[in-house]
Amino acid sequence: MPESFVQPPIAQAYWLRHAHVPAGLLREPLPGTANREGLCAVDLKIVSGKIAAIVASSPVSDPELANVDLRGGMVWPCLIDMHTHLDKGHVWPRTPNPDGTFPTALKVIQQDAAAHWQPEELYRRMEFGLKCSYAHGTQAIRTHIDAAGKLAEMSLEVFQELQAQWADRLALQAVCLVPVAYFLTPAGEALADRMATIKGGVLGGLAFMNPELDAQLDRVYALAQERGLDLDFHVDESGNPDDRALFKVAEATLRHQFARQVVADHGCTLSLQDAITVQETVARLAEAKVGVISLPLCNLYLQDRSPQRTPRWRGVTALQELQQAGVDTVIASDNCRDPFHAFGDHDMLEVFALSTRIAHLDSDYATAPQTVTQTPARLMGLPEMGKLELGANADLILFRGRNFSELLSRSQFDRVVLRQGKAIVRTLPDYAELDDLFAAPAG
Ligand SMILES: [Zn+2]
Questions:
Q1: I need a surface site. Which of 42, 69, 358, 393 has the fewest CB within 10 A?
Q2: How far apart are CA 281 and CA 271, in angstroms?
């Protein structure tokens, strides 16, 4: 690992001097004028692990305290990854996706689960993902957990063990993943009961288009309402413009006057629909205050893929239109090294950097950083995270990159991650840690 570009002191109080911070992550009034890219030049005082001052950068050092000169490098709050599938992660060595398509991914992951998933095996793969996330500077993660039939019992228990083990480093939330029709069965009701027993548990499912979708959604909303749970749906992850579950979710939220937070994920087909349809869906999402989570890397991999043919579209939802209408938008990582996405290292900066290219987030740097920090933190009910505020924990990432071009052009592998003001060890887990899970069985 390359050496960190600065060495913060092991001191109870110190200054981080000459930082650039995204103005959108600061409280008004700003400590100085934001530049063309919406960055403010500031000094941050860290005392007892918290942010004690944010002031306009001064050329004069504080003679009483250690002063770390960041030479204009960016400082961000630790990142939030609001949509992952930790239970599927890192199975690629034993279960690749031979044709890279969505239907094949679905088929082979089910085979993998039936043949291999065991509590210890699952724990190790899921923890591998957590180790990567933590080392790269993430502080909160929501994961979907495949929960049909017997998987629920095993996987949710493993999740809760990890949640307890990692509580001092990562805020973890779980969402159950089943087709929404499942909630019309007694097993579905039991699953809703189970989610209500999990700290930060969220009710969720795959909302496939079908003639009964409204009735299925009505059932899920009723179960969530009775138990006081937030909702999180997979919708419209396809290339079929007739898929409009995003609209159905917005309608259901309004129909039920659902007061808790609802988010809908993927929404790929919104980019393939005509302008009037897009406008109708976007307006309804805004009215219902449904947040939308885009997963650009996974959808770039899966969408518009067929053998021997070059893909023509990017698979992302209509992010810019959603943002302009005031819909909360989030970028997250989704699958890592499994049949749904062959790549990924749980690095939210990489996800942000690639999403910036894929979805042209560079057209508005004043709001782009919020998609991986403040907005997901708020939608996850963690409003103290994802922003730079007096009194907040100094959970920060110090980057060498001084502006967006520098930040997003190199990997920033030499970044420094502070948790409560102290630099963490950023060693990534070795892939070899999981090798024995993929060894061919004897005989
Ligand atoms: Zn997903």
A1: 69
A2: 11
Whether 321 is catalytic is: no
What confidence score (pLDDT) does residue 441 get?
Answer: 60
324 C-beta neighbours (distance < 10 Å), count: 12
Tens digit of each residue's pLDDT (9 = 90 or more) over 25-41 = 999 999 999 999 999 99
58 touches 92 (CB < 8 A): no
Q: How far is the CA of 135 from the centre of ligand 1 (A)?
A: 22
User: Residue 119 phi/psi, 5° resolution?
Assistant: -50, -50
pLDDT, tens digit, 9 for 90 and up, residues 7-31: 888 889 999 999 999 999 999 999 9
Structure tokens at 127: 């923890």
CA of 283 to the centre of ligand 1 (A): 24
Helix 151-165 vs helix 119-136: crossing angle, to nearest 10: 40
Q: How far is the CA of 186 from the centre of ligand 1 (A)?
A: 25
Q: What is the pLDDT of residues 230-261, one digit of tens each?
A: 999 999 999 999 999 999 999 999 999 999 99
Mean pLDDT score, 182-196: 98
The alpha carbon of 438 and the centre of ligand 1 are apart by a number of angstroms equal to 24
| 8 A C-beta contact, residue 40 and residue 26 | yes
Please state, in angstroms and rounded to a whole number, the distance separating the CA atoms of residues 210 and 146: 21
* CA pair distance 197, 378, nearest whole angstrom: 22
| 99 CA to centre of ligand 1 in angstroms | 19
Q: Is the pLDDT of residue 315 over 70?
A: yes
Confidence tier at 5 by pLDDT (50, 70, 90)? confident
Start-to-end C-alpha separation, the chain: 39
Rg from Cα positions in the chain: 22
Expressed in angstroms and rounded, the spacing between residue 420 Cα and the centre of ligand 1 is 31
Q: 219-230: per-residue pLDDT in tens? A: 999 999 999 999
Check: CB of residue 177 under 8 Å from CB of residue 206.
Answer: yes
260 CA distance to ligand 1 centroid (A)?
21
Residues 98, 109: Cα–Cα separation, whole Å: 12
pLDDT in the model for residue 204: 98
Task: Spell 338-350 as b/e; 16+ CB within 10 A means b.
Answer: bbbbbebebbbbb
Query: Could you say which DSSP state residue 116 is in?
Result: H
Three-state helix/strand/coil letters over 21-78? EEHHHECCCCCCCCCCCCEEEEEEEEECCEEEEEEECCCCCCCCCEEEECCCCEEEEC
Please tell me which residue in 237, 384, 389, 433 is annotated as part of the active site. Answer: 237
Token pair in block for residue 227: 């138990």
Three-state secondary structure call for residue 280: helix
